[in-house]
Design goal:
72% helix, elongated, 0% strand, 274 residues
Amino acid sequence: MRQVEGWRRPLGLAGVVALAGLGVFAVLALGAALGLWAAGFEGAVAREHLSPGPGAWLGTDALGRDLLARTIQGARVSLAVGGGAALGLVAIGGVLGAFAGLRGGWIDRLLAGLCDALAAIPPVVTLLGAALLLRPGLATAIAAIALTQWHGVFRSVRAEAQRMRSADHDRAARAMGAGTWHRVRWHLLPRLRPLLVTSLVLCFVYAVKVEAVLAYFGASAQTLPSWGRLLAETGSELARGIWWPTAAASVPLALLVLCAQVLADRLGEGEPRG
């Protein structure tokens, strides 16, 4: 109990601002999903490549579509993929890491070997390979990230489970007949809660950036203009001095990642020591 209470420290000004920033993105994404704003993101609203100004505050793209509406719609994709993939990463890596660390023996060696083999393959190869096996879309991006990038969480949880397995209280629990899941629920999970919360935010940051890469290669949402897809469509226009389509995708992407990263740093500072 002391560990959990010691971990709950104030986020500070930077953490509060970062949390508020994430809240703004969430409100924009929810409003776009409900059709409250940014509904006309598919149709042309003015001439092509109109610079930012009244009527098109972020300008228009090569087809005359409003970049502000498309950018807000892109927040839906990043938040959905970031949140879904982060939950999947933490769930898969946490469960496998806890099981390997607490059981030990051949199960531990097998799962650790699988983790090492997966980590040895370049992430782009595993991500695009998984995406090719599935139909492009939001579910594809979430599954590709969660199923191939859980090894970092696995290693952290496994190390903590191995430390707990050698502790006297865990030996006593095993001597009294406690099963693996009982030890996870009542002994390991309270110790891992700060780590898992921080890992969840960090995995969200990672997943948002990876989704942009997948969208760049056409493996993410097909009906919604994700930020990675916008970058893929507008990157070649920079050479002609048309900078606003790239800025409309890259600036919110950077701000979302920055807010989540600052929040993760503040949560990490609050973790108990020792």
